[in-house]
Amino acid sequence: LIAFRDTNGKVGLLREFCAHRGASLYFARNGQGGLRCWYHGWKWDTDGACLDQPNMPEDRRFCDKVRQQAYPCIEKNGAVWTYMGPRQTMPDPPELEWLTVPESHVYVTKRLQLCNWMQGMDGDMDGSHVAFLHDNVLDHTKEQAGQASTALMKAQLAPHLEVEWTPAGIALGVRREVDATRFAWRVNQWMMPGFTMIPPFPGDHPILGHSWAPIDDTRSWLFVFSWHPSRPLTRDEIDYMAAGNNNTHIRLIPGTWTPRANASNDYAGPDAPRAKQPWMRVKDIQDQDLAATESMGPLYDRTEENLCVQDIAIVNIRRRLIEAARALQAGTEPPGRDARDY
To answer: CA–CA distance from 143 to each of 111, 126, 140, 209, 235 (Å)?
Structure first.
């Protein structure tokens, strides 16, 4: 695929290889409303229409009879969205909450993850790992330090989990006891096919959501959205997130989408001091999640797993995806396509 912005400001997403003779449009010239193939000069707009065939006599051109494969794109709140299915079944854009608020309420980043997209997404819907994987940082983050919910997570390592199927996916409820008569619930949401919402922190903090987009079987993009439903984000909040300090937006190697903390430095960053054990060096929540899911390898063999009752959300997500894929093969569109389902 080739993504580009034309000189009119419109974003296009085209098949990489020119419909004339297959030269890569990575080398195309971007200008005057379209991409012109460097090989023979055929020109394509963002919708895939042929604008020019300059290597042929004017009376032999057939621009109206040839198209470059293109995918419709919209820009919304800091990201470009595309639909890659058949045009005749294209739904409305998803009405995820971070897409329904004004752009001033949203901050978004993306990063490269070197594993299958499901490995990362499973972690978002894993209700019992927090007190283990993140134990050494929960008491030091601004959003969680001193919170009663943090103390409950650290004290009750085997919470009660419940799953509810929703029109667009599933909701996961994680219940811990406050006292003999009260419970605290932590609720995650997953929406078809790769959207997750992380339970918000107590107080007036932005909410966190993820969009998992596979590149191929062994690599994925993770788009990280922080938003506030009722007010613009402050400059301090944006600077705090941009610096990677709130354990939601990872610091990157400048000029790349690669996390600064990665496998080459044990997910601790290049400047982290030595420690008695490798896990002690990983100090940020998102770095810890990245280490856990990439450490499985790029595509883990799930027949080697031994799932337990605490994996109930992961089991249900896989079941819904498999059922949706089989139904689609039989001609039934998957759930979650109606914007009202969100």
So the answer is: 22, 20, 9, 16, 17
Q: What is the mean pLDDT of residues 260-265?
A: 93
The residue among 43, 93, 96 whose CA lies nearest residue 73 is 93
Instruction: Report how far residue 38's alpha carbon sits from residue 40's, in angstroms, rounded to the nearest whole number.
Output: 6
Residues 56-98 have pLDDT tens digits of 999 999 999 999 999 999 999 999 999 998 888 888 888 899 9
E strand residue ranges, 91-168:
106-113, 160-165
22, with CB counted inside 10 A (0-12, 13-18, 19+), is: exposed
Please determine, for residue 137, whether its predicted confidence score (pLDDT) is greater than 80. no
DSSP letter string, 209-260? EEEEEEEETTEEEEEEEEE-SSSPPPHHHHHHHHTT-SSSS--B-TTSSSBS
Q: Quick check: 190 and 196 in contact, CB under 8 A?
A: yes
Q: Which amino acid is at 121?
A: M
Helix-then-strand count for the chain, H and E: 8, 16
Cα separation, 176 vs 166, in Å, equals: 23
* Separation between Cα atoms, residue 333 and residue 30, nearest integer Å: 37
The 8-class DSSP code of residue 333 comes to P
